[in-house]
Amino acid sequence: MSSGTVENTEPKESDEKTEEPESALETARRQLEHAAAHLDVDSGVIERLKHPTKVHRVAVPLERDDGEVEVFTGYRAQHDDVRGPYKGGLRFHPHVSEEECVGLSMWMTWKCAVMDLPFGGGKGGVVVDPKSLSSDEKEKLTRRFAEELRPFIGPKKDIPAPDMGTDAQTMAWFMDAYSMQEGETIPGVVTGKPPVVGGSEGRDEAPGRSVAIIAREAADYYDYDLEETTVAVQGFGSVGANAARLLDDWGATVVAVSDVNGAIYDPDGLDTRSVPSHEEEPEAVMTHDAPQKLSNEKILELDVDVLVPAAVGNVITADNAADVEADIVVEGANGPTTFAADSILQERGVQVVPDILANAGGVTVSYFEWLQDINRRQWSLERVNDELESHMLSAWNDVRAEVQARDVSWRDAAYIVALSRIAEAKSTRGLWP
Ligand code: GLU
Predict the structure, then answer these.
(1) Which of 166, 200, 363 to mutate to test the pocket of ligand 1 (most atoms within 8 A of CB)?
(2) Domains along the chain?
(3) SS (H, E, C) 180-215
(4) Ligand 1 atom showing the smallest separation from residue 163 Cα
(5) How far apart are the first and last CA of the chain?
(6) N vs C: which end of the chain shows fewer Cβ within 10 Å?
(7) pTM greater than the 0.85 cutoff
(8) Is the Cβ–Cβ distance between 317 and 340 less than 8 Å?
(9) What is the pLDDT of residues 300-347, one digit of tens each?
């Protein structure tokens, strides 16, 4: 059972907030403009990249368990496919919106380019609270959503994957619905499936593993010995828990982890394998014994070497960026730092390694999964992890080279790597007609 003191678990009053909530699209557009200023890229290319190629909006009717029919709204934003099919997750979350999907699809374009994967960027979702759905309802909603999106997706067109509120089982239902209608089994239509139906070994763990690899490299770059590095991780789901556990295995001291209910803190280091992850037991972090309990916001202000925000977007804002005491922030979630907060952190000398590099292990193993599906040949976990390690190191080295050559932030450097590749592809293909 829980023990120790509870500090500051009250949420901040909303009138204390000064920064207007920023949409993922606003953040993504501002980041694009900021990075483009460092590059000699045709302004027409930047202009084209500010707009998604297509956004599909669909109605998804569902007969609830009580017989009532409810209609949910679903989206699929397809940002850019100059380097290959659109790629990116599907969210089931009450805050899904067209704007959010477009912003997140832009990040997927950069993420795939920074990793040098032959994909563009897409993102979609359904405006629904998945906690309000029974398993049967979730399955029916997923199947109907797959059917509504069927004309726009496919292994050579647009390949969805799991994201917030969806998982391997959701992808299995999605693949099954698509395949039934197409009249053949097409595992490559989505990634993140269970291995028994064409999923890849190591896919679930991959985003957290890449966060851990990048945190390890960043610590090394700034001359921290991993054995003496302290880490705090906000969010203990598939990204946060896997990142925390690997860093713990590799010798770092993970002093704090959190979930929606709050954080546990032990200055001597937590045994991260004994703290239940969201998948093992949802929202159970606070039930774990620890010398101190903190609020979910306070974990962002701990004086640690490395902070990993791996929960939701927009958690580091202009309101709390001045209170971040970590030396290095490694973004596990998509878009945890607002544009305004990013500048404050940069002025204060806090190094922020961006999401499009740090959590890109997910889409990288999705690429491996897609290759395995197309070739009908399964890779071993060892091969997946070895190839992921080498892809992450190669992307890290590309981004590090830009940081050193241009004296820019890690985010700008990652954008520069991505934008250069996209712009070169766009100008080589040309604008038609
Ligand atoms: N949803 C994950 C992300 O944001 C993975 C996307 C994918 O594998 O296509 O990177």
Answers:
(1) 363
(2) 52-197 (3.40.50.10860), 206-358 (3.40.50.720), 402-433 (no CATH)
(3) HHHCCCCHHHCCCCCHHHCCCCCCCCHHHHHHHHHH
(4) 1
(5) 66
(6) C
(7) yes
(8) yes
(9) 999 999 999 999 999 999 999 999 999 999 999 999 999 999 999 999
